[in-house]
Amino acid sequence: MRVSDVMTRNVISVRPDETILKAARLMLQNRISGLPVVDVAGGLVGMVTEGDFLRRTELDTERRRPKWIDFVLGPGRIADEFTHTSGRKVAEVMTENPVTIGEDVSLAAAVELMEGKRIKRLPVLRDGKVVGIISRANLVRALVSLAHESEPAGDDATIRDRILAAFAAQPWAPRIDVTVKDGIAELWGTITDERMRKACMVVTENVPGVHRVHDHIVWVEPMSGMAFPSSEDEAARPEGVVTRDSVSAV
Predict the structure, then answer these.
(1) pLDDT band at 247 (very low <50, low <70, confident <90, very high)
(2) What's the predicted TM-score (pTM) here?
(3) Residue pLDDT, tens place only, 89-107
(4) CATH 3.10.580.10 at 3-146, yes or no
(5) Class for domain 156-249, per CATH?
(6) Are 213 and 202 contacting, i.e. CB atoms less than 8 angstroms apart?
(7) Which end of the chain, N or C, is less packed with Cβ atoms under 10 Å?
(8) How high is the mean pLDDT of the chain?
(9) Which part of the chain has CATH 3.10.580.10?
(10) Packing angle between helix 107-117 and helix 136-146, nearest 10 degrees?
């Protein structure tokens, strides 16, 4: 998938000479957390977000530091912070030269860029003009709309084959046997790291047609070689049988 497949197209923007009050009202009215800032020609000049309103003189939330730190930072840095906390125009508080992305870029590249820059949204540009916004919310919506739509569930035998193929595709996966009846999968096998158990469940749950998963995977403690059943099987054991919890308690 590409950015153009999930981005928001009807972009609400604000001009740099407009007030921060107008920008804040636009965010509240449209239930969004950021706005691209565009000039009269439609070119992107910045981004203003909720984060730009956290440190404000009106809220008495300006950053406060010991005087000696202000001395180290220098008057330029202090003046810049004052502009950001007391400015009345969008241009005075916005982030200039924001990170952008093209509409034909893959979603994977967009996510890497958002993670690498630690940002929540990217303006999407075409010929220097804003044609969309892609945010974390867009990615969540795409996830919901695409969940389990790729192929039909099939019968139990087909579901089992898909589960085994999904495990075979994972380099970390242990040897797992699977039975499936009425869409209920039963997992059997051994692991040497408890973190693999949850990953095995995820592999199985992601296969279309799986309604429920029963865990019968045995954990083998690498140092002692002792084997412990899954929590599900452990709960079904009769009293007096040694379990992992009783061994841990000792």
Answers:
(1) very low
(2) 0.62
(3) 999 999 998 999 999 999 9
(4) yes
(5) alpha beta
(6) no
(7) C
(8) 86
(9) 3-146
(10) 140
Sign, CA dihedral 145-209-175-246, equals: positive
Evaluate if residue 232 carries a pLDDT over 60.
yes
The residue whose two tokens read 């449209």 is: 30
Contact 177, 186 (CB under 8 A): no
For 12-50, write each residue's pLDDT tens digit: 999 999 999 999 999 999 988 899 999 998 899 999 998
Residue 233's φ and ψ, nearest 5 degrees, are -75, -35
CATH 3.30.1340.30 segments of the chain: 156-249
DSSP character string of 36-97: EEE-TTSBEEEEEEGGGGSS-TTTT------HHHHHHH-HHHHHHHHHHHH--BHHHHSEES
Q: Is 224 helix (H, G, I), strand (E, B) or coil?
A: coil
Q: What's the angle, vertex CA 73, arms to CA 67 and CA 79, rounded to 5?
A: 90
Amino acid of residue 249: A
Name, in order, each residue with C-beta under 8 angstroms of 149's C-beta and a sequence gap of 6 or more: none
Tokens of 191: 């692991």
CA distance 21 to 14: 11
Structure confidence at residue 249 as a pLDDT band (50, 70, 90): very low
Structure confidence at residue 246 as a pLDDT band (50, 70, 90): very low
Tell which phi-psi region holds residue 209, choosing left (phi > 0), alpha (psi between -120 and 50) or beta.
left
Find, among 217, 216, 213, 223, the residue nearest to 247 by Cα. 223
d(CA 207, CA 153): 8
Please report, as a single letter, which amino acid is at residue 200: C
